[in-house]
Fold these 2 entries.
Entry 1:
Amino acid sequence: MIANRRRGEIAAEFDGKPYRLCLTLGALAELEAVYAADDLGALVERFSRGRLSALDIIRVIGAGLRGGGSAISDDEVGAMQSANGAAGFAATVAELLAATFGAAEQAETPPKNP
């Protein structure tokens, strides 16, 4: 599975199958609605606390899978398995949020010439 980081996509494997995840604008709107967040800033603040519940992880991965083109419900995500268990799911969420909000891209940007 090829993922384009510049478009905010990541690749992940669940139940031994490759998937593309992307928090598209629609996926972010879905998460705003679920968390009653007024804007993206409130959503970022919620996720930057570093304390995600299992339900948070399911919701973010579900939104990312749907944004990446897979018709998978949150209930289906909750039944999936990751090669690294809960830690694998948490790492996927961290990578997806970094790809979405630019942390990965900033790290890839070469320094400007003086």
Entry 2:
Amino acid sequence: MREEEWALWMRAAIAGDADAYRRFLQALTPHLRAMARRRCEQLGATRSDAEDLVQEVLLTIHVKRGSWDPARPLGPWISAIVRNKLIDSLRRRGRAAHVPIDDMLETLEAEDQGDGLDHIDVERLVMQLREPQQSIVRSVSLAGVGIRETAAKLGMSEGAVRVALHRALKTLAVLYRSEVP
């Protein structure tokens, strides 16, 4: 029932209904937070890692929302994003991630490249951050570069990059929410 309601809101959001998109994100966030905490606990990651994961998933949902096929269930699409962001996070931290291929079958289809407007929307939000947060978000969250490589490139410690990324993602969430009517 919950997933059906989320799918209705997402369809309306894709059609331009900002209120439906706000309701979707507000309803989804606690579910994502619980899922992220559960998966991070299973893998020995911290609560802050889980919160970082939630922010990255929300940002990815925003950027990729046009790639969801409204004829398909929303739950597997969201779960695939969570799984992929979790794997990315583990890779950045140097942990091996093993995901059974059966879990990936529904997500192996090529994504729709869209019209590029999502990228422009994200770039507009990222431009509102101050440096080095802009560079860190572009490197880690958008380009998929690891924390270690980003820290070396920017002349920062890995811990400082993680803290700055976490704060930047929180700021992006606030900026995004302030733009959604």
